[in-house]
Design a protein that fits this description.
The complex is a heterodimer. Chain A is mainly α. Chain A has a domain at 276-502. Chain A has 21 helices and 2 strands. A two-stranded antiparallel sheet of chain A has the order 1-2. The longest helix of chain A is centred in the C-terminal third of the chain and has 32 residues, at 326-357. In chain B, helix 1 (5-27) runs antiparallel to helix 2 (36-54) and helix 4 packs antiparallel against helix 5. Classes of the chains: A mainly alpha, B mainly alpha.
Chain lengths: 502, 140
Amino acid sequence: MTEHISVLLIIIPLLAAPLMVIINSPKFSWLVSLGVTLVCTYLAYILMTDIQRGSEVHYAMGGWAPPWGIAYLIDPLNGLVTFIVSLIALSTIIFARKSVEREIDSHVIPLFYAAFLLCFLGLVGICLTGDIFNMFVFLEISSLSSYALIGMGKNRRALTASFHYLILGTLGATFFLLGIGMLLAATGTLNMQDLSMLLPAVENRPLLHTAFALIVVGLALKAAVFPLHLWLPNAYTYAPSTVSIFLSATSTKVALYALIRCLYDVFSFNYMLDSWLPQALLLVGTVAVIYGSWLAIGQSEVKKMLAYSSVAQIGYIVIGIGLLSDAGLRASLVHIFNHALMKGMLFMVAGILVYRLNSTRYQSISGMGKRMPITFGALIIGALSLIGVPGTVGFISKWNLAQAALAQQQWIVVVALLVGSLMAVIYCWKLIEILYFQPATKSRISKVEQGGDSVARMPVGMIVALWSMALLCIYFGFNTELTLQGAQLAVDALFATREVLP
Amino acid sequence: MRDNLILRVIAKALIPVILLYAFYVQFHGDFSPGGGFQAGVIFSTAILLYALVFGMDKAADVLSDRVLIALASGGVLLYAGVGVASLLLGGNYLDYNVLADDPVAGQHIGIILIELGVGMTVASTMLLIFFTFARRMVIR
């Protein structure tokens, strides 16, 4: 049965999405999405634990044997990332119902959920597949549906943000596809395992170097790695709240997973070691941490601040990849998990602000801290986690990353980590000061029905989703068994394949 | 378009031929070049021609948005459903061999059903895109 789980994770959303469009009822769509994400999270959990216990899953699509057909190959790395994506999708859907009712016109709600499930399907597919062209196809499925999702935002600037993302995203996908084409030309295969066997034979050809550069740049664009992050802030700011939560927590992470997979698994480790890439990744990551944090300090809008903070956090993950060590990669993977948790939660806070106050600008939320203790209590946990205070998930990943950097005596990176954390203190404190230490201004809030239910009460789904994420943030800050060991197993699996190579 | 006699007569003569050709490409897809995607596009051009010559409203009477959306989603469901069927019959996802007693016949059945799903989705999606944009022009 575990054999089929890998493909079920993709089939279930694929069947549910068109069904919702045909039935066309908002409430039904939400229920179906909830069911689908619940089942998928459960399946992903089974799959992950099963893989971590040592079984291997190879799934040949359509019964065609791997080098020719599309094969799904699950190892601890993609098992872990799949589980993260499913978990975030589940909590987003729990959060979503009221928020979507408020922000999306009722006649497109079924389409919204259908696009959401397709996006989820694409992200899971990127993780599970062992075929590099199939990975591109899933990348396109998730991207196309996320363009549509972002464009559904209430603010009209959502359309420009979505279009901007569309242009840059398509550019990234095209680069990736060109790279794949060149790999196919060089080796005649698309299967990743097969590629990693065949590539050493053609290692010194310019064609391969070009393919390498194209794939790295294409995926970095999708992952919003520093100089290629320009689409991210506006897309996350103007998208509907539900979409910001889901995309901020998963889409860049999955692109980073694809990058890790291509760098460590497809191209051999030694190939990357000889190239300019590790140094470049370290440099880019370091700059991203400082630059993203710096811009986050300057923002006066919660969602935009969080988006720029994401740019910085992606920098940490990139640094971990660039360190080229066991510990560095482990820190990256842990941070992929941890950052998904905390950023998802913080965007949920922003979603609640949109729902209740119809604004996320600093001016209009000043002094709200005492009035919305449940919401902002979670925000404080998230902020502490972003800073990296012990007892939260942020500390675990930063501690690991700092240790990895120290072990290699990359002093600049260590300094950047510290400065980045200090800057996180500044931008988080700025928000907390406005919430708790400034007098409330009432006049700025507009378009909220006075005395309506929505201002006074928070929907149960939102509280449940927000606080379960918040508690997970603390739980994984103390109990690192699942995250650290999962990441360690994933790293072991990646480096194990390296030793098989000639 | 009342007065464009030539246009109307030619369109009426051409549309059945185009539809027939679409079906040919569709059902011959497993023997020769062609298949669902091409057939879907050809099929949609027939309706498109009808809409251009006789007007949007008449075309929409035949194929309303609701029907088109149902067809588009139905195509995806058919595609995924064939995969699920092969899964339930004990094969891997989209393994057509198990669809019939004879593996070759199974492959035929599988590929025809899947191409049918692709054709439905492509044809109706093409028309939906056309109707959506055309309607915007009319409203302006």
